[in-house]
Hints:
The chain is an all-alpha fold. It has helices at residues 2-15, 22-45, 56-72, 78-99, 106-123, 132-151, 158-179, 188-213, 218-224, 228-240, 246-269. Helix 1 (2-15) packs across helix 4, helix 1 runs antiparallel to helix 8 and helix 4 crosses helix 6.
Amino acid sequence: MLCFAANSLLCRLALAPKLIDPATFTSVRVLSAAMMLSVCVGLRRQHLPRLTHANPRSIAALFAYLVFFSFAYTRLSTGTGALILIAAVQLTMFCIAWREGERFPLTSRVGLGLAFLGLLYLLLPGVSAPDPLGAALMAVSGAAWGLFSLLARGADHPVETNAINLLWCVFPVALMNLYYLGDFSGTSMGFGLAIASGTIATGFGYIVWYLALRDLSALHAATVQLSMPAIAALGGVAFLAEPLSMRLVIASAAMLGGIAIVMVRRSKAIP
Protein backbone atom coordinates (compact mmCIF):
# COMPACT_ATOMS: atom_id res chain seq x y z
CA MET A 1 0.00 0.00 0.00
CA LEU A 2 2.97 2.32 0.53
CA CYS A 3 3.87 1.84 -3.14
CA PHE A 4 0.31 2.47 -4.33
CA ALA A 5 0.01 5.58 -2.14
CA ALA A 6 3.41 6.67 -3.47
CA ASN A 7 1.94 6.76 -6.99
CA SER A 8 -0.51 9.44 -5.86
CA LEU A 9 2.17 11.35 -4.00
CA LEU A 10 4.80 11.17 -6.78
CA CYS A 11 2.21 12.25 -9.34
CA ARG A 12 1.24 15.29 -7.27
CA LEU A 13 4.88 16.14 -6.49
CA ALA A 14 5.55 16.23 -10.24
CA LEU A 15 2.34 17.85 -11.48
CA ALA A 16 1.39 20.34 -8.75
CA PRO A 17 4.47 22.56 -9.35
CA LYS A 18 4.30 21.75 -13.09
CA LEU A 19 7.66 20.00 -13.18
CA ILE A 20 6.29 17.89 -16.05
CA ASP A 21 3.05 17.77 -18.03
CA PRO A 22 0.55 14.96 -17.31
CA ALA A 23 0.84 13.31 -20.73
CA THR A 24 4.63 13.05 -20.52
CA PHE A 25 4.43 11.88 -16.90
CA THR A 26 2.10 9.07 -17.98
CA SER A 27 4.33 8.03 -20.88
CA VAL A 28 7.47 7.92 -18.74
CA ARG A 29 5.64 6.06 -15.97
CA VAL A 30 4.29 3.43 -18.37
CA LEU A 31 7.61 2.92 -20.16
CA SER A 32 9.54 2.67 -16.86
CA ALA A 33 7.08 0.20 -15.35
CA ALA A 34 7.01 -1.91 -18.52
CA MET A 35 10.81 -2.10 -18.58
CA MET A 36 10.98 -2.94 -14.87
CA LEU A 37 8.47 -5.78 -15.11
CA SER A 38 9.96 -7.08 -18.39
CA VAL A 39 13.38 -7.39 -16.74
CA CYS A 40 11.80 -9.27 -13.83
CA VAL A 41 10.03 -11.63 -16.25
CA GLY A 42 13.27 -12.23 -18.15
CA LEU A 43 15.24 -12.99 -14.99
CA ARG A 44 12.61 -15.27 -13.51
CA ARG A 45 11.11 -17.01 -16.55
CA GLN A 46 14.06 -16.81 -18.94
CA HIS A 47 12.06 -15.17 -21.72
CA LEU A 48 10.61 -11.78 -22.56
CA PRO A 49 6.90 -11.06 -22.04
CA ARG A 50 4.87 -12.69 -24.81
CA LEU A 51 2.89 -9.88 -26.38
CA THR A 52 0.60 -12.31 -28.20
CA HIS A 53 -0.93 -13.25 -24.83
CA ALA A 54 -2.55 -9.84 -24.44
CA ASN A 55 -6.16 -9.13 -23.47
CA PRO A 56 -7.43 -6.04 -25.37
CA ARG A 57 -10.01 -5.20 -22.70
CA SER A 58 -7.35 -5.30 -19.96
CA ILE A 59 -5.08 -3.06 -22.01
CA ALA A 60 -7.90 -0.55 -22.63
CA ALA A 61 -8.84 -0.50 -18.92
CA LEU A 62 -5.22 -0.07 -17.80
CA PHE A 63 -4.66 2.70 -20.36
CA ALA A 64 -7.77 4.56 -19.14
CA TYR A 65 -6.68 4.22 -15.51
CA LEU A 66 -3.18 5.56 -16.19
CA VAL A 67 -4.21 8.50 -18.36
CA PHE A 68 -7.17 9.75 -16.31
CA PHE A 69 -5.14 9.30 -13.10
CA SER A 70 -2.44 11.73 -14.23
CA PHE A 71 -4.79 14.36 -15.63
CA ALA A 72 -6.99 14.18 -12.51
CA TYR A 73 -4.01 14.95 -10.28
CA THR A 74 -3.47 18.28 -11.99
CA ARG A 75 -6.69 19.36 -10.23
CA LEU A 76 -6.92 17.34 -6.99
CA SER A 77 -4.99 17.11 -3.74
CA THR A 78 -3.22 13.85 -2.96
CA GLY A 79 -5.65 12.63 -0.29
CA THR A 80 -8.82 13.65 -2.12
CA GLY A 81 -7.67 11.99 -5.34
CA ALA A 82 -6.71 8.76 -3.56
CA LEU A 83 -10.03 8.65 -1.73
CA ILE A 84 -12.09 9.13 -4.91
CA LEU A 85 -9.91 6.57 -6.69
CA ILE A 86 -10.29 3.80 -4.10
CA ALA A 87 -14.02 4.50 -3.68
CA ALA A 88 -14.56 4.24 -7.44
CA VAL A 89 -12.52 1.02 -7.55
CA GLN A 90 -14.51 -0.65 -4.81
CA LEU A 91 -17.93 0.57 -5.97
CA THR A 92 -17.18 -0.57 -9.53
CA MET A 93 -16.20 -4.02 -8.33
CA PHE A 94 -19.33 -4.28 -6.18
CA CYS A 95 -21.56 -3.20 -9.07
CA ILE A 96 -20.00 -5.77 -11.38
CA ALA A 97 -20.38 -8.44 -8.70
CA TRP A 98 -24.08 -7.51 -8.43
CA ARG A 99 -24.47 -7.69 -12.22
CA GLU A 100 -22.85 -11.12 -12.23
CA GLY A 101 -25.47 -12.41 -9.81
CA GLU A 102 -23.94 -11.85 -6.38
CA ARG A 103 -26.50 -10.47 -3.92
CA PHE A 104 -25.67 -8.50 -0.80
CA PRO A 105 -27.62 -8.74 2.47
CA LEU A 106 -29.16 -5.69 4.15
CA THR A 107 -26.03 -4.95 6.21
CA SER A 108 -23.89 -4.82 3.09
CA ARG A 109 -26.37 -2.57 1.33
CA VAL A 110 -26.30 -0.20 4.32
CA GLY A 111 -22.50 -0.15 4.10
CA LEU A 112 -22.60 0.62 0.38
CA GLY A 113 -25.16 3.37 1.03
CA LEU A 114 -22.91 4.91 3.70
CA ALA A 115 -19.93 4.85 1.34
CA PHE A 116 -22.01 6.47 -1.41
CA LEU A 117 -23.24 9.20 0.97
CA GLY A 118 -19.63 9.85 1.99
CA LEU A 119 -18.70 10.28 -1.67
CA LEU A 120 -21.64 12.63 -2.25
CA TYR A 121 -20.65 14.68 0.80
CA LEU A 122 -17.08 14.99 -0.48
CA LEU A 123 -18.32 16.19 -3.87
CA LEU A 124 -20.98 18.63 -2.61
CA PRO A 125 -20.44 22.20 -3.86
CA GLY A 126 -18.66 24.41 -1.40
CA VAL A 127 -15.41 26.19 -0.62
CA SER A 128 -13.57 22.95 0.20
CA ALA A 129 -15.18 20.83 -2.51
CA PRO A 130 -12.77 19.17 -4.94
CA ASP A 131 -12.56 20.38 -8.52
CA PRO A 132 -15.52 18.71 -10.30
CA LEU A 133 -13.60 17.89 -13.48
CA GLY A 134 -10.71 16.48 -11.48
CA ALA A 135 -13.13 14.38 -9.41
CA ALA A 136 -14.82 13.07 -12.57
CA LEU A 137 -11.48 12.17 -14.15
CA MET A 138 -10.36 10.32 -11.02
CA ALA A 139 -13.70 8.48 -10.77
CA VAL A 140 -13.23 7.24 -14.35
CA SER A 141 -9.66 6.21 -13.48
CA GLY A 142 -10.89 4.27 -10.44
CA ALA A 143 -13.66 2.57 -12.42
CA ALA A 144 -11.11 1.55 -15.06
CA TRP A 145 -8.79 0.14 -12.40
CA GLY A 146 -11.64 -1.80 -10.82
CA LEU A 147 -12.51 -3.29 -14.20
CA PHE A 148 -8.85 -4.07 -14.89
CA SER A 149 -8.54 -5.83 -11.52
CA LEU A 150 -11.55 -8.03 -12.28
CA LEU A 151 -10.29 -8.84 -15.77
CA ALA A 152 -6.94 -9.88 -14.26
CA ARG A 153 -8.52 -12.47 -11.96
CA GLY A 154 -6.97 -15.91 -12.27
CA ALA A 155 -3.85 -14.86 -14.20
CA ASP A 156 -1.36 -17.72 -14.09
CA HIS A 157 1.64 -15.39 -14.15
CA PRO A 158 0.48 -11.95 -12.89
CA VAL A 159 3.87 -10.22 -13.20
CA GLU A 160 4.20 -11.25 -16.85
CA THR A 161 0.55 -10.40 -17.48
CA ASN A 162 1.07 -6.89 -16.12
CA ALA A 163 4.28 -6.52 -18.12
CA ILE A 164 2.40 -7.46 -21.31
CA ASN A 165 -0.43 -5.02 -20.56
CA LEU A 166 2.00 -2.18 -19.85
CA LEU A 167 4.06 -2.89 -22.99
CA TRP A 168 0.89 -2.70 -25.07
CA CYS A 169 0.06 0.62 -23.38
CA VAL A 170 3.34 2.19 -24.54
CA PHE A 171 2.09 2.85 -28.08
CA PRO A 172 -1.25 4.54 -27.21
CA VAL A 173 0.32 6.71 -24.49
CA ALA A 174 2.99 7.76 -27.00
CA LEU A 175 0.24 8.80 -29.42
CA MET A 176 -1.45 10.72 -26.60
CA ASN A 177 1.87 12.41 -25.87
CA LEU A 178 2.11 13.52 -29.50
CA TYR A 179 -1.44 14.91 -29.32
CA TYR A 180 -0.48 17.04 -26.29
CA LEU A 181 2.95 17.93 -27.66
CA GLY A 182 2.04 21.62 -27.61
CA ASP A 183 1.61 21.40 -23.82
CA PHE A 184 4.96 19.68 -23.26
CA SER A 185 6.95 20.69 -20.22
CA GLY A 186 9.60 18.76 -18.39
CA THR A 187 12.42 19.16 -15.90
CA SER A 188 14.98 16.67 -14.67
CA MET A 189 13.11 16.46 -11.36
CA GLY A 190 9.80 15.86 -13.15
CA PHE A 191 11.26 13.05 -15.24
CA GLY A 192 12.89 11.58 -12.14
CA LEU A 193 9.58 11.52 -10.27
CA ALA A 194 7.85 9.89 -13.26
CA ILE A 195 10.57 7.22 -13.48
CA ALA A 196 10.27 6.57 -9.74
CA SER A 197 6.50 6.24 -10.13
CA GLY A 198 6.99 3.72 -12.94
CA THR A 199 9.84 1.60 -11.64
CA ILE A 200 9.23 1.66 -7.89
CA ALA A 201 5.62 2.59 -7.12
CA THR A 202 4.12 0.81 -10.15
CA GLY A 203 6.59 -1.91 -11.23
CA PHE A 204 8.02 -2.93 -7.86
CA GLY A 205 4.66 -2.24 -6.20
CA TYR A 206 2.90 -4.73 -8.48
CA ILE A 207 5.50 -7.42 -7.69
CA VAL A 208 5.23 -6.92 -3.92
CA TRP A 209 1.42 -6.78 -4.07
CA TYR A 210 1.08 -10.04 -5.99
CA LEU A 211 3.57 -11.75 -3.66
CA ALA A 212 1.47 -10.55 -0.70
CA LEU A 213 -1.73 -11.79 -2.34
CA ARG A 214 -0.49 -15.36 -2.03
CA ASP A 215 -0.93 -15.10 1.75
CA LEU A 216 -4.03 -12.88 1.80
CA SER A 217 -7.64 -13.82 1.25
CA ALA A 218 -9.61 -11.78 -1.28
CA LEU A 219 -11.42 -10.12 1.64
CA HIS A 220 -8.21 -9.16 3.43
CA ALA A 221 -6.65 -7.92 0.20
CA ALA A 222 -9.64 -5.68 -0.49
CA THR A 223 -9.71 -4.43 3.11
CA VAL A 224 -6.00 -3.62 3.12
CA GLN A 225 -6.54 -1.35 0.11
CA LEU A 226 -8.71 0.90 2.28
CA SER A 227 -5.55 2.13 4.04
CA MET A 228 -4.18 3.66 0.83
CA PRO A 229 -6.09 7.01 0.90
CA ALA A 230 -5.03 7.67 4.49
CA ILE A 231 -1.37 7.00 3.67
CA ALA A 232 -1.59 9.21 0.57
CA ALA A 233 -3.31 12.03 2.48
CA LEU A 234 -0.64 11.99 5.19
CA GLY A 235 2.04 12.07 2.49
CA GLY A 236 0.36 15.07 0.89
CA VAL A 237 0.31 16.89 4.22
CA ALA A 238 3.95 16.05 4.97
CA PHE A 239 5.53 16.63 1.54
CA LEU A 240 3.20 19.10 -0.20
CA ALA A 241 1.78 21.00 2.78
CA GLU A 242 -1.74 20.12 1.60
CA PRO A 243 -4.49 20.91 4.10
CA LEU A 244 -6.35 18.05 5.77
CA SER A 245 -9.88 19.47 5.65
CA MET A 246 -12.67 18.38 7.96
CA ARG A 247 -14.74 17.56 4.85
CA LEU A 248 -12.08 15.07 3.73
CA VAL A 249 -11.86 13.52 7.21
CA ILE A 250 -15.64 13.06 7.50
CA ALA A 251 -16.01 11.77 3.94
CA SER A 252 -13.11 9.36 4.48
CA ALA A 253 -14.69 7.98 7.64
CA ALA A 254 -18.05 7.46 5.91
CA MET A 255 -16.71 6.01 2.66
CA LEU A 256 -14.05 3.72 4.09
CA GLY A 257 -16.24 2.74 7.02
CA GLY A 258 -19.09 1.83 4.70
CA ILE A 259 -16.86 -0.30 2.47
CA ALA A 260 -15.36 -1.96 5.57
CA ILE A 261 -18.89 -2.91 6.73
CA VAL A 262 -19.47 -4.62 3.37
CA MET A 263 -16.17 -6.47 3.64
CA VAL A 264 -16.85 -7.69 7.18
CA ARG A 265 -20.36 -8.80 6.25
CA ARG A 266 -19.05 -10.69 3.21
CA SER A 267 -16.37 -12.40 5.34
CA LYS A 268 -19.09 -13.84 7.59
CA ALA A 269 -20.83 -15.27 4.55
CA ILE A 270 -17.69 -17.12 3.41
CA PRO A 271 -17.70 -20.70 4.80
